[in-house]
Design goal:
The chain has 315 residues and is mainly alpha-helical. It has helices at residues 19-46, 68-91, 107-124, 126-155, 161-189, 191-210, 215-243, 249-262, 266-278, 284-300, 309-312, and strands at residues 56-57, 62-63.
């Protein structure tokens, strides 16, 4: 059985035994794409110094007045996404149509279908539902680290706005290396140990960073954090694929995305609560760490099937 499809059926991307390693390589390629885009934006729109009405930035000498250089950089990022998504939309292999016919439905009907899918998975394997909840929590915490990292770097640890982009480039490279290494470790010992070990390291580093000050602490702890973020994300997808029933992978990944979106407010909310309660921006790291700890505890309760076991079951 093949876990993932390629553009040609004769050339599978991965098997149940190699899915962890391939997931790590795929996640790393996404990080390297981010590096290229960040370098383009930094050199073209952000690099340089100076302020005032006539100040310009980057090789393109874009005026900084009214944030024009930043707003144009956002347009470049949007165009980057649109252009590089076209090959997937135009040439990707199309899955065969399912045997059952899907009837058009209303918005409420869509929620009923969603609830029926969740109920079906709950009856089939509650362990998968536990994993979806746990992964939604720790993925929200990981997203918050990226989302609030720049805010913390500038407002708490003294990083300049231009250096934030430089940090983003280095952090993406480190995360990519971590994803590749984590993929090979995943291949050896399994996805759950990689996720649990990465989350333990991330929580420890986040709490350490919360009590330190200065740009050096931000660079060291921040890059070490990113080293473990890549493996936790790539192994989470690999584990989901391992736990999904053959022929129902699309449903599993749909629920994976939906649960992640459903709790996406938790980490930002706790970040703001901790900042308000303790009166310091750095305290927000405690709120993010709390979400990561909840996801970690949830992961400890998840039972992992033998790799390839579900693939051997009749669909």
């Amino acid at each position: 059985e093949i876990y993932t499809l390629s553009l040609h059926d004769a050339l599978p991307i991965s098997t149940p035994q190699t899915v962890g390693r391939i997931s790590g390589l795929g996640w790393a390629s996404g990080y390297f794409g981010s590096v290229v885009l960040l370098l383009l934006i930094y050199t073209g729109f952000i690099s340089g110094s100076g302020s005032g009405p006539g100040a310009v930035r980057g090789l393109l000498r874009v005026p900084v007045h009214d944030g024009l250089n930043v707003r144009e950089a956002m347009l470049v990022a949007a165009a980057w996404l649109a252009v590089l998504a076209l090959p997937l939309l135009l040439v990707a292999h199309r899955l065969p149509e399912p045997a059952e016919a899907h009837q058009p439905t209303s918005m409420l009907g869509g929620y009923r279908i969603l609830w029926s899918e969740i109920s079906a998975e709950w009856r089939r394997d509650r362990n998968l539902v536990y994993f979806l909840i746990a992964s939604a929590l720790f993925r929200d915490g990981l997203a918050a680290i990226f989302g609030f990292g720049a805010v913390l770097g500038v407002s708490v640890y003294g990083i300049s706005q231009a250096d934030v982009l430089v940090f983003g480039v280095v952090a993406s490279v480190v995360a990519a290396v971590g994803a590749v290494v984590g993929g090979f470790v995943d291949h050896r010992i399994g996805s759950k140990p990689v996720i649990v070990g990465s989350l333990v390291a991330i929580v420890a580093l986040a709490l350490t960073l919360m009590v330190l000050s200065g740009s050096v602490a931000f660079w060291v702890c921040g890059l070490l954090l990113c080293m473990f973020i890549g493996p936790s994300q790539s192994s989470a997808r690999a584990l989901l694929l391992q736990m999904a029933k053959v022929g129902r992978e699309g449903v599993a990944f749909g629920l994976y995305t939906m649960t992640g979106r459903a709790v996406a407010f938790v980490a930002p909310w706790l970040f703001s609560v901790f900042v308000d309660v303790f009166g310091a921006v750095r305290a927000g790291l405690g709120g993010i760490a709390l979400v990561l700890i909840a996801g970690l505890v949830g992961m400890l309760a998840v039972r992992v099937p033998v790799r390839g076991a579900l693939a051997a079951e009749p669909s």
